[in-house]
Design goal:
Elements (H helix, E strand, L loop, with lengths): L1 E3 L5 E3 L3 E9 L5 E5 L2 E5 L7 E9 L3 E11 L12 H4 L9 H18 L23 E8 L4 E6 L6 E3 L9 H16 L13 E8 L6 E7 L7 H9 L4 E8 L11 E7 L3 E5 L2 E5 L9 H15 L6 E5 L5 H7 L4 E6 L2 H13 L5 E5 L2 H11 L6 E4 L8 H10 L3 E6 L2 H11 L4 E9 L9 E8 L1
Parallel strand pairs: 5-7, 12-13, 17-18, 17-20, 18-19, 20-21
Antiparallel strand pairs: 1-2, 3-4, 3-6, 4-5, 6-7, 8-9, 8-11, 9-10, 11-12, 13-14, 15-16, 21-23, 22-23
Helix pairs in contact: 2-10, 3-4, 8-9
């Protein structure tokens, strides 16, 4: 396809153009224009002049790649990871960290204005991390190749081709040792990696979890079978890493992109590790949802707790409560907390976590929040003073927003991992009864374009 601009510049694929970058898109890509024609260029920064090769041309916009940076931004940084261009996971490594934080603040503000329709909303500065590498407590590595030459790493962008890596700089350093032991095990035992095209082979994924405060390490091997061959050899090798307290395998024999199956078989130690957030302890299994950046999670939850401004007489409802992390933070201040979560195993974990922390004023209920909360309110007369919602990336169910507005709590605290669906939901919340009081982004996913945001809504 060819496009002709107002000044008769012809834009077409495989031709080179000079592009002045004006801003960043919501995924961190550079955006510039050629005589009014919008061009998206991955890895480019505002203020840069790019010699770009056009890759794709649509009617109103196109995609290009950098051939040469003719003018370099002061905000550009040299990526610290040698796999940066191949992996695609940490897509902001080329940006100085201070500017990453500005970008994330601007992203939240942009979505609130563009999607939510809000005007003049003050967004606080993004709370950054003191350590923006080695922060992740969880890794999931796909496995491919052969037993002699295993491929363990991450899928390349927009593909299922595995980029073989020996180190990921945002993972805990112990993760590297675990991967090395896994390679040794496969090489010595001739256990084959999984081939998703033929649905053959055994080893599909390696899952690791590491307790940042306790030092406990979990390794779970996802397999295409009912038994892990020569598992004793693997256990012996993994124990050489030190502090490994849980080794298991997970059975997933389905032709699917879903990583984990339902069945977990223990090979060594406990079926969970323990870690702490603040003064609270949490038991984390291979299937548990637990925030991947524990240091920033404490900051996020303390921010949410400050927004909630809970007194010892308050009733609190925590929708999408997961394994009870936020609920138990809230229960330290509130009279009573109700946590609702659709995943039954997560509720079991939440009850166990309440027990090990000696918290008896938190009650956990299995079910959809949009079904359970109306029943609590309309049939049982339970009315919350404060409601906290921490939904998945898709945001809140519209029916849940309606019933919360009908209940009319004094304050609503919305914790979001996607500022686009956050903006959409806030528009519905603020339609009649509520107004936005505070918005604070927290950099939970350093070196990536993702951002967590805590928002306080108060009743008008």
């Amino acid at each position: 396809m060819k496009v002709t601009t107002e000044n008769n510049i012809i834009i077409e694929k495989n031709k080179r153009y000079k592009v002045e970058i004006e801003t960043l898109g919501t995924n961190g890509e550079g955006i510039g224009r050629i005589d009014g024609f919008t061009v998206f260029i991955e890895g480019a920064l505002p203020g840069e002049t790019i010699d770009a090769l056009m890759l794709k041309v649509n009617k109103n916009y196109g995609y290009a790649k950098i051939v040469e940076i003719e003018k370099i931004s002061d905000n550009r940084s040299e990526p610290r990871c040698k796999y940066y261009k191949k992996c695609g996971g940490c897509n902001l490594q080329h940006i100085k960290y201070e500017y990453q934080l500005e970008f994330k603040k601007d992203k939240v503000k942009y979505n609130l204005e563009r999607i939510g329709g809000f005007d003049g909303i003050n967004v606080n500065d993004t709370i950054g991390a003191k350590d923006n590498i080695h922060y992740r407590n969880k890794a999931q590595f796909p496995v491919g190749g052969t037993s002699e030459k295993s491929l363990i790493g991450f899928f390349r962008p927009r593909s299922h081709n595995i980029e073989d890596i020996d180190e990921c700089i945002i993972q805990h350093p112990k993760t590297k040792e675990i991967v090395e032991k896994m390679r040794e095990y496969m090489r010595e035992t001739k256990v084959m990696p999984y081939d998703e095209n033929s649905h053959t082979g055994i080893i599909r994924h390696i899952l690791t979890r590491i307790g940042y405060k306790t030092g406990e390490i979990m390794v779970c091997i996802i397999i295409n079978g009912n038994k892990l061959p020569k598992s004793d050899v693997l256990v012996d090798k993994l124990l050489e890493v030190g502090n490994v307290t849980s080794i298991s395998f997970n059975v997933n024999k389905e032709k699917t992109n879903v990583i984990m199956g339902d069945k977990i078989c223990m090979l060594y130690g406990k079926p969970y590790i323990t870690d702490k957030l603040g003064e609270l302890s949490f038991e984390i299994s291979p299937l548990s949802f637990f925030q991947v950046n524990p240091v920033q999670t404490e900051i996020l939850y303390n921010t949410a707790l400050g927004f909630a401004d809970i007194s010892d007489s308050d009733i609190v409802i925590d929708a999408y409560c997961g394994i009870g992390t936020i609920s138990l933070f809230l229960a330290q201040k509130a009279k009573k907390v109700y946590g609702i979560e659709i995943v039954e195993d997560a509720i079991k974990d939440a009850k166990r976590n309440a027990e090990i922390n000696s918290i008896d004023n938190a009650e956990f209920i299995v079910g959809k929040s949009e079904e359970v909360i109306p029943m609590m309110y309309k049939e049982n007369g339970i009315k919350a003073d404060v409601v906290v919602v921490d939904p998945p990336r898709k945001g809140c169910d519209a029916a849940l927003i309606d019933v919360i507005c009908d209940m009319s709590p004094e304050r609503i605290v919305y914790v979001s991992c996607d500022s686009a669906t956050l903006a959409r939901d806030l528009k519905q919340f603020c339609c009649e009864k509520y107004k936005i009081e505070k918005v604070t982004p927290v950099d939970q996913f350093c070196q990536t374009s993702h951002i967590e945001t805590a928002v306080l809504l108060s009743r008008k």
